[in-house]
């Protein structure tokens, strides 16, 4: 009985199964005491562990259940569905009142608010309390200064003020850190929820929507736009908190300075609209930058997927130029943003100064008797310092809101785009037929031209159906219509039962081979082995290093094309579905393998004999065994019936079969029904021998997570790219800025001391005016230093960004093909996106902040120590504790951030993999399982983020507590010296001490930020030290006409893919004649493709040499070699862009030459029928062309760059026999004066070669004319016999 794993396997509801014992590390937060939770002491064990050893994923605490993606995503999706339904109701109401509907989209913001409103309110309450406490400190300081001014006999109140100051700042620390904890985690949960919704939507997109949103654009939505939303949420409370703080500060200033404070308010009112204009400009720049990033990611994604084609055709410089052009547009926008940042920096630094200058100036003008006392000055200055942050934050958060609005628009546009309509097909059909079409017409777009018209097909249950026709006739489209992937225009489509789908281009997951076959179903060992045997995979498992536990790379890069198709077929067979849709599964497999697959799997006696099977095929010899044949012609069913019915009634099929028959005659194809049993045994014995072609025997590399500190050489590399001139100039600018800032405060302090005696001077008004002028001059100097520093930083950071990006791109393009086959593309793209973003935007900011904080801290300690020398005694142990805490924290935090960085790549890789295989996932009905997998990889990143947030809070509580002790110590020393210290000095010392808490905290945090973000520089520079390909151009260059004869000579040639693997080619020695046609054959793993890779130096030699027309190819540059060879590869890779660009990316040829090659490839008529003809837009991966058409476009490329040597790597595997015949004729005619090396599965395509090279286990076993090889009855004869070709038919 046919076993169906679906009965036992994954249903639509997938349970989360924790992985590994370490994954269950319990989170102690909930069971911790109140004090432990407030101070984050429960996290200390991770900090201590991280100091002792590099942290690993298993060491981290798991999320609280309510914070995990498994809980967050379903709740948000439910709210989004409610919002969609509410929006539909609103539109209906508007329509009922005959109002013009503005087609308002469902709001992502409303859905997010309804999901997270309670926790957002909780976060806001924490912020309110923290803000109120921040204004309590200046008021206590005011009372202390009053205490010193009056010098009372009883000093106990002074101690009370010192203690009160300590308690207030400590409470503020605890509440602020709780705010930060909930705020950061809520923002991360919002990002997680949005990513989950994007992923789910990507699985539901219609084909029209998939064309609108490329893979790169969808990935950008998930990474950049979701990140933008997260960043805004983290700062969202500043929208109300900043005005609240400004209002509080102004009201308290009014109490100190009266109406004079209105002058300061006027300055604010004047500056805020300017900041609004800056925000508007930033919005435009952000929009432009987002488009540039989309273009770059899209192009990079295509380049990395098609890297083999770029290398074979030597197109790297052309595509490098395209990337750099986009990058220069990005940097231009970044430069403008940097100049706007100069203004922002000026605002941050100078507004408090301008406000204080205007306020003090008006204060003097209002009443000549007004004098500045220590109480007024230092209370006011403390309030002005508090005012600085909200004044800077408010325009920044307004700008962030504007930028996020763009991201929200993009996200809402994507989330509201068209989905596949369930009504495209009826899946709950319970009638007599498995599949039924009734007057059905289909298009890829509802408004487009019908691709399939008036289909009337009834397929009985258990039938074996063939769909045949020429390239572009609509065969694959019929399968897409059955899957519901096409838009139904008219008619009815019905399908009964579950479906399994084998795509024409096999989709393979980046996981072990066994998981690729099981595809979510449970393991049933006996049936599993039966499936592997039927799909001819058992011999392959013996070759793979770990059998069915071998990890398959992205897109199946470490297995052959034939193996991919057989794994894809095994996956379908194992699923136990009711209906099997098989899109030309024999195209990429050897003839004898194809025969076995039909007999043991698909055919009347195969494992699927009782299932409904729809087979798209070009192999017309299979038609007599079909229950039903559907002949497609230009999107219509030309004929339908059994083989005998069509043969007797239909002239067209007869003509088709006659054409095939003539092809058989021409190429001597005659089917053999009985093969000698002894010969069969020999063939099986050959199959069972392990292959020496170990080039594909590797596993994908996991992302390497560095351990230990970042080397200073990494920082040095950034500074070198920054430019040493800019480095020294920026240091000078920031030193000047801080010295002038200290000078301002000291000048103010001296002024206050003299204010008491001002009335004694006859010209005291003039003196006061001079002091105000000098104070203003110092502020102006500080503004100039700030502007200079920001400008220098912008110029230097642009230089660093340009240099590091160019080096990264250059290094990636020079890496050998083996690197791309063993490293997930997500890892490479992550370096161009996330890591370059950190280098572009964040790293120089952290560096600048750290330098500023360092100078701030040094200045603060010196100022306080100058006023209170004993302060040094208290600072020394506190500094020791600071560095101790920092050392523990940095060791853990650095590694947690590295783990977080490594956990991002799997999200991108899984997303990219899903988008490329979405049709297969939908066909199998496994959307929910993949959604669960997405939640798992996102949750892993969230765990790292959570631990990172808590580690930051752990640090902040401790550092701020030490800072609070410094404040207490400064206040206590001042009280102890009450009788010998001026109130002005007390005010200066305590106001500086209040600032040092934040400065020291920032200093340690930014030092860690620099180290952890320097990992991005480390990752970007990582490829620099890897083994590269040989230079593209070398000093020795071949003549311009080389090769002119086409003589290829291998001399004792040996090659291996890696040093730790055996030889893939051994002692290969042969020579071709000029213009000779050589066929290269051999079983899977014999070394055929390795031979062609060696010609292009994709694989370098281990011994021997290859000589082409007298030149050893190892002595010339790769581009001089590859540019003079020609290849039509096995995989037809196209890039998004115009058809013209795909044919001629270097823009070398005229339109007339392009039309000429299209005619030779039998594509001219098709291209002329397109509205834009040569400018027809090819979608990503060429998905709007059939696989056969893509292969013909690749042929056209080869015809354009006609060279003396042509390699055909199974170039016609994806086209029908009739078109294959025409193509072979074209190749023979157009390349008649060339040397042609043909690697083919279809032996008929090389049977008329001048000579045939037979490879086995990496060695040449035979090299003779086809006739002589047949007479020798060796391996070639065995392969011919197995394929059904006899000696008799060859000689005809």
Automatic annotation (TrEMBL):
<dbReference type="InterPro" id="IPR003439">
    <property type="entry name" value="ABC_transporter-like_ATP-bd"/>
</dbReference>
<keyword id="KW-0067">ATP-binding</keyword>
<keyword id="KW-0677">Repeat</keyword>
<feature type="transmembrane region" description="Helical">
    <location>
        <begin position="772"/>
        <end position="793"/>
    </location>
</feature>
<dbReference type="Pfam" id="PF00005">
    <property type="entry name" value="ABC_tran"/>
</dbReference>
<dbReference type="Pfam" id="PF00664">
    <property type="entry name" value="ABC_membrane"/>
</dbReference>
<feature type="domain" description="ABC transmembrane type-1">
    <location>
        <begin position="121"/>
        <end position="403"/>
    </location>
</feature>
<dbReference type="InterPro" id="IPR027417">
    <property type="entry name" value="P-loop_NTPase"/>
</dbReference>
<keyword id="KW-0813">Transport</keyword>
<dbReference type="GO" id="GO:0016887">
    <property type="term" value="F:ATP hydrolysis activity"/>
</dbReference>
<dbReference type="InterPro" id="IPR003593">
    <property type="entry name" value="AAA+_ATPase"/>
</dbReference>
<keyword id="KW-0812">Transmembrane</keyword>
<dbReference type="InterPro" id="IPR050173">
    <property type="entry name" value="ABC_transporter_C-like"/>
</dbReference>
<feature type="transmembrane region" description="Helical">
    <location>
        <begin position="961"/>
        <end position="981"/>
    </location>
</feature>
<feature type="domain" description="ABC transporter">
    <location>
        <begin position="1048"/>
        <end position="1282"/>
    </location>
</feature>
<dbReference type="GO" id="GO:0140359">
    <property type="term" value="F:ABC-type transporter activity"/>
</dbReference>
<feature type="domain" description="ABC transporter">
    <location>
        <begin position="435"/>
        <end position="659"/>
    </location>
</feature>
<comment type="similarity">
    <text>Belongs to the ABC transporter superfamily. ABCC family. Conjugate transporter (TC 3.A.1.208) subfamily.</text>
</comment>
<dbReference type="GO" id="GO:0005524">
    <property type="term" value="F:ATP binding"/>
</dbReference>
<keyword id="KW-0926">Vacuole</keyword>
<feature type="transmembrane region" description="Helical">
    <location>
        <begin position="339"/>
        <end position="366"/>
    </location>
</feature>
<feature type="transmembrane region" description="Helical">
    <location>
        <begin position="158"/>
        <end position="176"/>
    </location>
</feature>
<feature type="transmembrane region" description="Helical">
    <location>
        <begin position="260"/>
        <end position="279"/>
    </location>
</feature>
<feature type="domain" description="ABC transmembrane type-1">
    <location>
        <begin position="728"/>
        <end position="1002"/>
    </location>
</feature>
<dbReference type="InterPro" id="IPR011527">
    <property type="entry name" value="ABC1_TM_dom"/>
</dbReference>
<feature type="transmembrane region" description="Helical">
    <location>
        <begin position="857"/>
        <end position="885"/>
    </location>
</feature>
<dbReference type="InterPro" id="IPR036640">
    <property type="entry name" value="ABC1_TM_sf"/>
</dbReference>
<keyword id="KW-0472">Membrane</keyword>
<dbReference type="GO" id="GO:0005774">
    <property type="term" value="C:vacuolar membrane"/>
</dbReference>
<feature type="region of interest" description="Disordered">
    <location>
        <begin position="1"/>
        <end position="24"/>
    </location>
</feature>
<feature type="transmembrane region" description="Helical">
    <location>
        <begin position="732"/>
        <end position="752"/>
    </location>
</feature>
<dbReference type="InterPro" id="IPR017871">
    <property type="entry name" value="ABC_transporter-like_CS"/>
</dbReference>
<keyword id="KW-1133">Transmembrane helix</keyword>
<keyword id="KW-0547">Nucleotide-binding</keyword>
<protein>
    <submittedName>
        <fullName>Multidrug resistance-associated protein 1</fullName>
    </submittedName>
</protein>
<dbReference type="GO" id="GO:0000323">
    <property type="term" value="C:lytic vacuole"/>
</dbReference>
């Amino acid at each position: 009985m046919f076993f169906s794993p679906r009965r036992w396997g994954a249903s639509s509801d997938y349970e989360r199964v924790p992985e590994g014992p370490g994954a269950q590390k319990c989170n102690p937060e909930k069971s911790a005491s109140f004090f432990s939770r407030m101070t984050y002491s429960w996290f200390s064990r991770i900090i201590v562990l991280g100091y002792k050893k590099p942290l690993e994923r298993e060491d981290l605490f798991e999320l609280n259940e309510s914070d995990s993606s498994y809980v967050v995503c379903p709740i948000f999706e439910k709210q989004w569905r409610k919002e969609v339904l509410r929006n539909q109701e609103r539109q209906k109401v508007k329509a009922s009142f005959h109002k013009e509907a503005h087609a308002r989209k469902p709001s992502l913001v409303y859905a997010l608010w309804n999901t997270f409103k309670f926790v957002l309110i909780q976060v806001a309450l924490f912020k309110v309390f923290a803000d109120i406490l921040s204004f309590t400190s200046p008021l206590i300081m005011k009372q202390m200064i009053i205490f010193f001014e009056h010098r009372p006999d009883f000093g106990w109140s002074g101690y009370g003020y010192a203690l009160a100051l300590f308690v207030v700042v400590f409470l503020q620390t605890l509440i602020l850190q709780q705010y930060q904890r909930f705020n950061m985690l809520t923002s991360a949960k919002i990002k997680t929820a949005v990513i989950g919704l994007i992923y789910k939507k990507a699985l539901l997109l219609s084909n029209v929507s998939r064309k609108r949103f490329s893979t790169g654009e969808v990935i950008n939505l998930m990474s950049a736009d979701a990140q933008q939303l997260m960043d805004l949420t983290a700062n969202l409370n500043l929208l109300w908190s900043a005005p609240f703080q400004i209002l509080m500060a102004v009201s308290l200033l009014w109490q100190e300075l009266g109406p004079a404070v209105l002058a300061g308010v006027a300055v604010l009112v004047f500056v805020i609209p300017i900041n609004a204009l800056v925000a508007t400009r930033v919005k435009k720049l952000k929009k432009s930058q987002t488009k540039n990033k989309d273009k770059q990611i899209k192009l990079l994604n295509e380049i990395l997927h098609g890297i083999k084609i770029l290398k074979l055709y030597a197109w790297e410089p052309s595509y490098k130029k395209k990337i750099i052009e986009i990058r220069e547009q990005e940097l231009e926008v970044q430069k403008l943003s940097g100049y706007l940042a100069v203004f922002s920096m000026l605002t941050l630094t100078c507004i408090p100064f301008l406000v204080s200058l205007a306020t003090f100036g008006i204060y003097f003008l209002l009443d000549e008797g007004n004098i500045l006392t220590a109480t007024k000055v230092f209370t006011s200055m403390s309030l002005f310092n508090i005012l600085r942050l909200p004044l800077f934050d408010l325009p920044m958060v307004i700008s962030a809101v504007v930028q996020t609005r763009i991201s929200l628009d993009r996200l809402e546009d994507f989330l509201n785009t068209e989905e596949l309509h369930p009504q495209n097909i009826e899946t709950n059909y319970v009638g007599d037929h498995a599949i039924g079409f009734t007057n059905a017409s289909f298009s890829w777009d509802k408004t487009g031209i019908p691709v399939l018209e008036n289909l009337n097909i009834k397929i009985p249950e258990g039938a074996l159906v063939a769909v045949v026709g020429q390239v572009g006739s609509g065969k694959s489209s019929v399968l897409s219509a059955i899957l519901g992937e096409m838009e139904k225009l008219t008619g009815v489509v019905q399908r009964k039962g579950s479906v399994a789908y084998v795509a024409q281009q096999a989709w393979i997951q980046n996981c072990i081979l066994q998981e690729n076959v099981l595809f979510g179903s449970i393991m049933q060992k006996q049936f599993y082995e039966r499936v592997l045997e039927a799909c001819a995979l058992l011999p392959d498992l013996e070759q793979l290093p770990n059998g069915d536990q071998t990890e398959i790379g992205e897109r199946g890069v470490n297995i052959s094309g034939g193996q991919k198709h057989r794994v894809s077929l095994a996956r379908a067979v194992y699923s136990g579905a009711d209906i099997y849709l098989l899109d030309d599964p024999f195209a990429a497999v050897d003839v004898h393998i194809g025969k076995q697959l039909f007999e043991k799997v698909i055919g009347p006696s195969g494992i699927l004999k009782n299932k409904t099977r729809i087979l798209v095929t070009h192999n017309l010899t299979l038609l007599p065994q079909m229950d039903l044949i559907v002949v497609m012609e230009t999107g219509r069913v030309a004929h339908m019936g059994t083989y005998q019915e069509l043969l007797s009634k239909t002239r067209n099929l007869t003509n088709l079969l006659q054409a095939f028959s003539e092809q058989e005659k021409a190429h001597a194809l005659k089917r053999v029904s009985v093969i000698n049993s002894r010969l069969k045994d020999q063939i099986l014995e050959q199959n069972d021998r392990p292959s020496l072609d170990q080039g594909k025997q590797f596993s994908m590399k996991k992302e390497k997570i560095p351990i230990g500190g970042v080397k200073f050489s990494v920082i040095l590399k950034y500074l070198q790219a920054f430019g040493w001139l800019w480095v020294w100039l920026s240091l000078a600018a920031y030193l000047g800025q801080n010295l002038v800032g200290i000078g301002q405060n000291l000048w103010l302090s001296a002024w206050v001391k003299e204010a008491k005696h001002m009335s004694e001077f006859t010209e005291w008004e003039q003196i006061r005016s001079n002091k105000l002028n000098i104070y203003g001059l110092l502020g102006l100097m500080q503004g100039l230093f700030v502007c200079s520093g920001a400008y220098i930083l912008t110029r230097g950071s642009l230089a660093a960004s340009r240099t590091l990006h160019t080096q990264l791109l250059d290094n990636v393009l020079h890496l050998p093909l083996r690197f791309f086959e063993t490293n997930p593309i997500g890892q490479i793209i992550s370096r161009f996106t996330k890591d370059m973003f950190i280098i572009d935007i964040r790293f120089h900011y952290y560096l600048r902040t750290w330098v500023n904080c360092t100078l701030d801290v040094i200045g603060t300690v010196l100022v306080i120590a100058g006023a209170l020398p004993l302060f040094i005694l208290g600072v020394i142990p506190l500094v020791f504790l600071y560095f101790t805490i920092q050392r523990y924290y940095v060791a853990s935090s650095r590694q947690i951030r590295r783990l977080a960085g490594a956990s991002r790549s799997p999200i991108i890789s899984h997303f990219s993999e899903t988008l490329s295989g979405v049709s297969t996932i939908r066909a199998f009905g496994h959307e929910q399982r993949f959604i669960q997998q997405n939640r798992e990889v996102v949750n892993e990143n969230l765990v790292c983020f959570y631990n990172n947030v808590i580690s930051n809070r752990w640090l902040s509580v401790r550092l701020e507590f030490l800072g609070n002790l410094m404040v207490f110590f400064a206040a206590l020393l001042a009280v102890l010296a009450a009788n010998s210290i001026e109130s002005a000095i007390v005010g200066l010392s305590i106001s500086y001490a209040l600032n040092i808490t934040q400065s020291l905290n920032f200093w340690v945090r930014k030092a860690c930020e620099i180290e952890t973000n320097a990992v991005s520089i480390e990752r970007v520079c990582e490829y620099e030290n890897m083994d590269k390909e040989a230079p593209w151009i070398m000093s020795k260059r071949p003549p311009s006409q080389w090769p002119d004869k086409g003589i290829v000579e291998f001399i004792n040639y040996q090659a291996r893919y890696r040093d730790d693997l055996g030889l893939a080619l051994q002692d290969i020695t042969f020579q071709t004649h000029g213009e000779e046609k050589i066929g290269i054959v051999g079983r899977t793993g014999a070394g055929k493709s390795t031979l062609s890779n060696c010609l292009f130096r994709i694989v370098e030699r281990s011994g021997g040499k290859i000589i082409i027309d007298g030149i050893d190819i190892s002595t010339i540059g790769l581009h001089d070699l590859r540019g003079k060879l020609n290849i039509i590869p096995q995989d037809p890779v196209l890039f998004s862009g115009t058809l013209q660009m795909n044919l001629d990316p270097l823009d070398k040829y005229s339109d007339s030459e392009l039309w000429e090659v299209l005619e030779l490839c039998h594509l001219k008529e098709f291209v002329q029928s397109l509205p834009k003809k040569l400018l027809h837009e090819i979608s990503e991966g060429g998905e709007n062309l059939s696989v056969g058409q893509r292969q013909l476009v690749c042929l056209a490329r080869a015809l354009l760059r006609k060279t003396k040597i042509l390699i055909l790597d199974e170039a016609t595997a994806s086209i029908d026999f009739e078109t294959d015949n025409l193509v072979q004729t074209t190749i023979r005619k157009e390349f008649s004066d060339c040397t042609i090396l043909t690697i083919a599965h279809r032996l008929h395509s090389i049977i008329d070669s001048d000579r045939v090279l037979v490879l086995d286990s990496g060695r040449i076993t035979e090299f003779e004319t086809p006739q002589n090889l047949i007479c020798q009855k060796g391996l070639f004869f065995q392969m011919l016999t197995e394929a059904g070709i006899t000696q008799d038919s060859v000689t005809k």
